[in-house]
Amino acid sequence: MSILSFNSDSDQPALTKFFVDELSDVLNAEKQLTKALPQLEMAATSPDLAKAFAEHLKVTQNQIARLERVFKIIGMSPKDKKCKGMEGLIAEGQAVIKDTEDGSATRDVGLIVAAQKVEHYEIAAYGSLRQLAKMTEKAEIAQLLEETLQEEKETDMLLSNLAESFINEDAKQVDG
């Protein structure tokens, strides 16, 4: 028997309510990110970094559709709950833009750091949700969340590779 019970009655177990609440939170996080990524793209100096942000916007839009599909599978309308964690992380990214010189390698390094904080937040969220979903009898939910988790890990690795390949070296040369 599944410890998560998705049904239409309002007397769902506390763990089910928690799972749905966390789905709502991450849905909002992804929606906030779709507004922030174009700002990061425009602020990036490196064409490769700007391209990574643009490509991740498309991935994020697909992740939103995937979350909406999860809601459909559990028989609920997609709803989002204000994600304060993502709000704070996005504010940190905006501070990097404000506090660094336009066109500098330092800004790109700062943008990568801010973006990786977002990715690590999402990795934690999707990893936890996937684990909870594995406890259900709905393997499709776990698979959808796993797909998103892998995309977040790939984005984190891409950002690490960008930082290691040239941005950090450029920042050292410029700064000192």
Automatic annotation (TrEMBL):
Pfam families: DUF892. This is Ferritin-like domain-containing protein. InterPro entries: DUF892_YciF-like (IPR010287), Ferritin-like (IPR012347), Ferritin-like_SF (IPR009078), YciF (IPR047114).
